[in-house]
Amino acid sequence: MSQPIDIAVIGATGTVGETLVQILEERDFPVGTLHLLASNESAGSAVSYRGKNLRVREVDAFDFSQVKLAFFAAGPAVTRSFAARAEAAGCALIDLSGALSAAQVPAVVPEANPAALDGLSAPVQVVSPSAAAVALAVVLAPLQGLLDLERINLTACMAISAQGREAVGELARQTAELLNARPLEPRFFDRQVAFNLLAQVGASDVDGHGALERRLVSELRELLGLPLLKISVTCVQVPVFFGDSYSVSVHSRKAVDLAAVNAALESAASVELVDGDDYPTPVGDAVGQDVVYVGRVRGGIDEAEQLNLWLTTDNVRKGAALNAVQLAELLIKGLV
Known about the structure:
- This protein is of the alpha/beta class.
- The chain has two domains: 5-128 and 320-334, Rossmann fold (3-Layer(aba) Sandwich), CATH 3.40.50; 134-315, Dihydrodipicolinate Reductase, domain 2.
- It is built from eight helices and 14 strands.
- The strands form three sheets. Strands 5-2-1-6-7-8 form a six-stranded parallel beta sheet, with helices on both faces. A six-stranded mixed beta sheet has the order 10-9-11-14-13-12.
- The longest helix has 15 residues, at 165-179.
- The radius of gyration is 20 Å and the shape is globular.
């Protein structure tokens, strides 16, 4: 077993942070002392770990020289505020917030581009990409040898939990109000989200694209090693608590061999292929699981070079927390 290392989790009271702590325990990660950190509003609360309730402390006063590795699972502003302090203290960093650009540090999904970790200088800083980029990279990377990728058209159906506990509470409250025939008053969202679809996630820029859409395009190009890959993406907010789903249309420069595609997906790490007339759903299949489910694998109606897929996965667990822990498992030999 690897020598235990001391670790900090920033954002430990959030949905991703709590799940990350849970996965560290489930995978028996060699943790020495676990420091749970959050904003001053959340400090003082407790998170369960290995049969104990660990108290959450304020990140503002934390000395990063106490730990070898820090997971940044809070918002981008928190990463920007404390990443330099962690680096100066010699602490390795895994950022889940999207605050650090590809020009600064690599984005890595172990099933897609683990070689990106080779040769990084200490203290290592690495990005665990958006949940959408993780899911797509896990599925598309094992197909790259079969497809000459030209273009990807993607509709991403995003779960509410990606926006945090307040958003989850908002969907629950709106649902209760509507079911009880009470007047609906949107708070977190600017309109009704319960029993509805919102055609964008977050604010859009002057060109009409959301920050998550732009981030997804950039990260997927990096993860697949295809900087010129054409990607069209629309993120849709759906009234689902946990579990993202994606309708993916891949365009190849050559005809798609569906039998070879199915065989590659069947043997790919972290992929669960649902074939035949069945298909996976977030609630029935993905939530709480450590894989990306793939179904409705089919060619184009009148285009031999087209491949269509339906993906669903637990956005908090597989898309965020587990990917970060898997990165830590790859890094750990260089941290002790």
